[in-house]
Amino acid sequence: MIVGNKNFKEGFLWGGATAATQYEGAYNQGGRGLATNDFLTGGTKNSPRKVSVILKDGTKTFLDREAAVPEGAVGYIAEETYYPSHKATDFYDHYKGDIALFAEMGFKCFRMSISWPRVFPKGGIDGEVPNKEGLEFYERVFNECKKYNIEPLVTLFHFENPAYLADNYDGWYSRETIDFYLRYCKEVFTRYKNLVKYWIPINEINVLRGYTRLGCRDTGAQARYQALHHLFVANALAIKLGHEINPENKIGAMLALSGIYPKDCDPKNIMGAVEYRRRALFFSDVMMRGYYPSYTRSMFEDLGVTISKQPGDDDIIRKYVSDFLAFSYYRTTVYHTGVVQETDTGGQLGDANPFLEKTPWGWPIDPTGLRYVLNELHERYQRPLFIVENGMGMDDVIEEDGSINDDYRIQYLEDHIKEMKKAVVTDGVDLLGYTTWGCIDLVSSGTGEMKKRYGFIYVDMDDEGNGTLRRIKKKSFEWYKKVTQSNGENL
Ligand code: BGP
């Protein structure tokens, strides 16, 4: 059967993407509980973000984001330190104006996340009632989207855990967290039944680890994969629930899937790259196919991991697979044996690729790689795909006349969209949509900087959190508007 379109299909979901912990702010307003990210400091390209903790003896310290948190330590908020999630770029107070700007750009889709502790401040523990103010806030946001016919694409868990669950249950390491999370899912699926149809239960599951992202203190492979097993079960049960509450719901897996190339034709590097890629595709294999793939045994042996499953887990995972595969794509990695850490599942930078330019943050720019990954995933799963993050982080400059001429961003996006179009038109890839990352400037999740900007809309805020929060359209704003309004014809 030959499929494929001449162009992007009618209803292709053009838009932009954000996440609460990087955009929403108002961390202590409207009844929101604390999130693990609220203890994560700002950082820079050269000095990574740190988690602030109080040790058992009362002393305060800062740990690397991915370091194990010592037994008995509790997160704290230091007055003297800047925590980017606290204010972020304040979607909470700007949502109306921001959504109006997205509508003006012709967005058909807006990806955002719900902050779990805004809905259940303690994560949804037994007897906890949901936070009315939090639920009302998101209802207002979704109604605003509806007003402009913008389809919300909602992530339920984007890098922030309720701190209460992290401190009292060890986050996703605990099996009980599955039930708490499902209580939260039930609440939002029910409440927004008529407002939201596209859901992503977990953001970039393949790069989750440690205290902030998994809520677990232990960062070792054993604890990590056990926690991830709980996430697989939670994801499957969320799909079940979401389909029961509204059969129209489309619920997708989401991974960081920037591409991997072998360094050369040395068979060791070719096979090594395949094995390395599996560290990431393992997650989509489980969520799209419904079972732990055959190579899991050797992968777990290498990592020294043994998963404890409960009877019924495998059936649950088999029965409730994802409706589509969403992924983020920024760059590609060059692999050769020994160059990347064996435990990595997200794609470190690897060797330099002599054929590609890099952004100032060292990320190789590779539009063809996007077509390559789209084909890789299409051929592997034969199910709809959704590019839910792509873009170029740059330190934009405001000219004297107030304009921001981000031609480099326009070039980056144009080149990627052209390759995406080839994947759809030439290769017949079934693609639901394209939402660029950080369509309005927000805090970088990797470094905590403000100056790593991705937006079509500039936000006046610096790396220390100073600024008026004023929104300014960049040159790319008008360009993207043409793209969305012509359904990708006019690039
Ligand atoms: C992805 C995350 C996003 C986002 C993006 C860009 O991994 O899902 O939250 O931040 O990467 O990364 P950074 O912010 O580090 O530039």
Q: Secondary-structure map with pairings?
A:
Elements: E1 13-17, H1 20-23, E2 50-54, E3 60-64, E4 74-75, H2 84-87, H3 91-104, E5 109-113, H4 116-119, H5 132-147, E6 151-155, H6 163-169, H7 176-191, E7 198-200, H8 210-214, H9 221-245, E8 250-256, E9 259-262, H10 267-289, H11 296-303, H12 313-319, E10 324-328, E11 332-335, H13 367-381, E12 385-389, H14 407-425, E13 431-437, E14 457-459, E15 471-473, H15 475-485
Parallel strand pairs: 1-5, 1-13, 5-6, 6-7, 7-8, 8-10, 9-11, 10-12, 12-13
Antiparallel strand pairs: 2-3, 2-4, 14-15
Helix pairs in contact: 3-5, 7-9, 9-12, 13-14
Bound molecules: 6-O-phosphono-beta-D-galactopyranose (BGP).
Query: Helical region count?
Result: 15
CATH architecture: Alpha-Beta Barrel
Which range does the strand content fall in? Answer: 5-15%
Which structural class should the secondary elements be placed in? alpha/beta
Q: Please describe the biggest sheet, giving its number of strands, its sense, and whether it closes into a barrel.
A: 8 strands, parallel, barrel
Reported by name, the CATH topology is TIM Barrel
Shape: globular
Q: Give the uncertain stretches in residue-range form.
A: none
The total domain count is 1
Ligands bound here? Answer: 6-O-phosphono-beta-D-galactopyranose
- The helix content is 25-40%
Strand order of the largest sheet: 1-5-6-7-8-10-12-13
Through-space gap between termini? 30 Å
Number of strands: 15
Run of helices and strands: EHEEEHHEHHEHHEHHEEHHHEEHEHEEEH
Radius of gyration: 21 Å
Overall pLDDT: 94
CATH superfamily: Glycosidases
CATH class group = Alpha Beta
